[in-house]
Write the structure tokens for this entry.
Amino acid sequence: MKKMAIFAATALSLLNAQAGAQTWTPGPGAAPVWVWEGTVTVQKGSSPAFPCRVTVEVVNPGTGSTTQTQQPAVTPGNVDGIQFNAGFIACPGILPITQPFAVDYTNTGGNEAFNVRNVYVITPTPGDCAGDITNIVFNDNNPPSSGDDSLDVNAVLPEVTPGSGACTIIGNLPLRTPGAVDIS
């Protein structure tokens, strides 16, 4: 019985070690920063929704499940690693609470996602929003997934000023560079 308990504990520790040992492909030597860019719809409370162009740059750690946004960003005009840019005043600004933003990757039963931590959004209407952008779906193009390496964002950031309304961010960000990626 004692041997069975030792075997079970050893097997569990090996599984836990494997779960935290993700490999990012291509590696950081070939692709030090992964960049996604696309259009999302942003809305603050009950104000009108509007489209914004978003660029997200994530540092490729090579292995593991934690990383950060690229600082300084490689895309012109992208200062904080996440940039909202609509070309007009309605698109919110983003300020880091921590700089760069902490990013973590999860894979639960083949459902891959990123979380961006401690984001503060300056909104065109009073109240601003702050918090974590969670469950950003990573549409991995490798089996068992059949995605296109894009990110699906469907997030709600809590309001900073009570009663001003939360911020919603919804859209798809295609992978811009490198050409194809995988985390396994």
The radius of gyration is 18 Å.
